[in-house]
Amino acid sequence: MNSATKNLENDHVYILRLIDVMEIVTSTSRPEISDLETIVNLIKNYADGSHHAKEENLLFPLLAKRGFSLQQGPVAMMLIEHTQGRNFVRGMGEGISRYKNGEENAVPDIFDNMNGYITLLRNHIAKENNVLFRMADNVLDEKDHQILLDGFAEVETSKGLSTEYLKGIEKLEDAYKIK
To answer: How confident is the model at residue 40 (pLDDT cuts 50, 70, 90)?
Structure first.
């Protein structure tokens, strides 16, 4: 059976690939501004704009209907971590603006936010893949999965083609010699 949780886990594969690129970028002394902007764009549009939209607007509300709390427990923790991730991305964006204006001392701030995001997302994805999605699979039936998959397809279409974002990740991987 094609499942909603499998769809989200597939997104995680690409998000983790982007995080691997970010880790290499943070080891450079003078990162390319265009690469930093691409990373933030990919996070905002793919990781947050598409993937988190699927979770927050579709999966989590359905899980709430199936008895999960949005105020405590695993779903609440994922929502808190999504907000923390957005704060790191905002910090990256602010640092990039300063760096573009010639402030070399902005690079450590960018990297601090990137490293915070890297650590947060690796742990976040592990919790979703190994705990929350397994719990979801125990309460969602085949009809629920199909409703979610239909909704996910709408999100992916409205947010732009995922293939465009995946090509962006591959381009960064090539630039930083990851494979």
So the answer is: very high
Contact between 178 and 69 under an 8 Å Cβ cutoff? The reply is no
Burial class (CB within 10 angstroms; exposed 0-12, middle 13-18, buried 19+) of 122: middle
Do 24 and 173 contact (CB within 8 A), yes or no?
A: no
- Report the pLDDT value the prediction gives residue 2, as an integer from 0 to 100: 84
Task: From residue 35, give the alpha-carbon distance in Å to each of 47, 105, 109, 122, 175.
Answer: 16, 18, 16, 21, 9
User: What number of other Cβ atoms are within 10 A of residue 179's Cβ?
Assistant: 7
pTM score over 0.85:
yes
